[in-house]
Amino acid sequence: MGAFVELVPWIVGVLGVTNAFSYLLFAIDKKRARTGDWRISEQTLLLAAFFGGGGAKLAQYRLRHKTKKEPFRTWLNIVVVLQILVGTVLFFPPARIATSETVSNLLIRIAASETFSSLLIRDGQAHESGRVMPRRFGPGSD
Question: Number of helices (H) and strands (E), helices first, in the chain?
């Protein structure tokens, strides 16, 4: 446990940088949305949120950016909840036992649900090979 305590300042620093970066990406995308420039893809925003979900959620709230866009809003909320769960498990050892079984059962249910599958396919277009191709972003895209 002593080694983990020594890492806490580094963990806090890295989380601060990643949250600031997520906020910055949302701010840039909001500015580009207003000016009609090429946008940052939702996948990139969600990836940034995966590492800095608090900054992404704060940017969504303060900048009023992507607050109604589905399934993006749902995915961002899922990322933030997962980060809270991971933080709870890491920093409160008794929570590890209580949450490990519950989280694994929840993830199995989510992965098996039809809604989860439809969220993955809804953002893309079917390709003749059966793969889901990403949508284009920027001026002239649908």
Answer: 6, 2
Q: CA–CA separation, 1 vs 119, rounded Å?
A: 40
Residue 29 has pLDDT above 50, yes or no: yes
Structure-token pair, residue 112 = 């098996």
Amino acid letter, residue 4: F
Report the distance separating Cα 48 and Cα 50, nearest Å.
5
**Rounded to an integer, what is the distance from CA 49 to the centroid of its chain?**
4
Q: Is there a contact between 29 and 23 (Cβ–Cβ < 8 Å)? A: no
Which residues are CB-contacts of 4 (< 8 A; sequence separation ≥ 6)? none
| Single pTM value for the model | 0.61
Q: What is the pLDDT of residue 117?
A: 58
* Surface-to-core class of residue 52, CB atoms within 10 Å of its CB (0-12 exposed, 13-18 middle, 19+ buried): buried
Any idea how long the chain is?
Answer: 142
CB distance 89 to 82 below 8 Å: no
